Amino acid sequence: MKLEDINQTTNTLPHINQADKPNLPEKKQTAAEAGKQISATDKVELSAQSKDLKKIRDVLAMTPDVRTDRVAALKKAIEDGQYKIQAEAVADKMLKEQLFD
């Protein structure tokens, strides 16, 4: 094991302590001055893609979650006895979903 000279390590302490201190700005701005600078230069522009996404969101918000015409047609087919369940297709879908989960 190598022992270092004690004088060498004490000479580095002031440099380490100085590195830990943040540099303070020379002149502090008041909040009012900072606010004037920000409000005079800040500007927001939305991209064309952002505008398109907003349009899409608006259309989706107006679209109903349930397709009432399709639900009504299925109800009528069930009541009339015309709706036939294809057991093989249901089983295939169940197996595929189980395998992919």
Any overview of this molecule?
The chain is mostly helical. It has a domain at 48-100. The protein has 5 helices and no strands. It has helices spanning 6-20, 31-41, 48-62, 68-80, 87-100. The longest helix has 15 residues, at 6-20. The chain is elongated, with a radius of gyration of 36 Å.
What tags apply to this protein structure?
single chain; 101 residues; mainly alpha; 5 helices; 0% strand
Quick structural gist:
With 101 residues, the chain is an all-alpha fold. The chain has helices at residues 6-20, 31-41, 48-62, 68-80, 87-100. The two termini are 58 Å apart.
Secondary structure blueprint with pairings:
Layout: H1 6-20, H2 31-41, H3 48-62, H4 68-80, H5 87-100
Terminal-residue CA separation:
58 Å
Number of helices: 5
Large-scale geometry: elongated
| Approximate strand percentage | under 5%
Helix content: 55-70%
- Structural class label: mainly alpha
The largest β sheet comes out as: none
Total number of strands = 0
Overall average residue pLDDT: 78
Uncertain segments: none
- Cα Rg: 36 Å
Order of helices and strands: HHHHH
